[in-house]
Please model this.
Amino acid sequence: MVTMSEKKPKPIVYSIEECKSCNVKTKRPFQMGDYIYKDDVGECKECHGKTLISMIYSETPKPT
Model:
């Protein structure tokens, strides 16, 4: 039985941006309005090409 003091940690949601030119992937925190295949979300730090969101996922923090 789970008690109120044994709450599960809240998952952290991330978005993966992928460059359309060189395929470099960058992980960043999720922002409201993000969705998969959202186009022109930024500029690639490697080749300065356009990026799109290729994946959104969550990670559960490890208990400390």
Remarks:
- The chain has a mean pLDDT of 90.
- Residues 2 and 23 are 44 Å apart (CA to CA).
- Residues 12-59 form a domain with the Rubrerythrin, domain 2 fold (CATH 2.20.28).
- The chain has one domain: 12-59.
